[in-house]
Specification:
Layout: H1 2-20, E1 41-43, E2 49-51, E3 55-60, E4 76-81, E5 86-87, E6 94-97, E7 103-108
């Protein structure tokens, strides 16, 4: 009986963890758990990303990311060092931010193209 209760509890916790981070990229891969914080991950238009000598400059226009809604007055501009970028599983740009606009995760295609 105790074993059954333990299994039931594990299933509930697993389901809750899954519900906490349901984010899936348009191409079908799941954003990592540590990047999730609501509806904070989204694929970016390649025009929003510029590379420079030290990393990427990402400009999110209000309404072009679920967290950075049309209600925002100004674009969000993030400077992201190359070392903070993760390899994008689908070859597209993706950005995860919190409500304050702080970087959680950034995914870049191989070669930054």
């Amino acid at each position: 009986m105790r074993a059954l209760a333990s299994i039931a509890l594990a299933l509930v916790l697993t389901a809750e963890a899954t519900e906490t981070c349901p984010h899936e990229a348009p191409s079908g891969w799941d954003y990592p758990f540590e990047c999730c914080s609501g509806a904070d991950c989204a694929q970016l238009d390649p025009k929003a990303v510029k590379a420079n000598a030290s990393g990427f400059i990402v400009t999110v226009v209000p309404g072009q990311h679920p967290i950075w809604s049309r209600d925002r007055r100004h674009p969000l501009v993030l400077e992201i060092a190359y070392r903070k970028a993760r390899l994008s599983p689908d070859g597209k740009w993706h950005l995860c931010i919190n409500d304050a606009g702080d970087l959680l995760c950034f995914f870049a295609p191989a070669g930054g193209s």
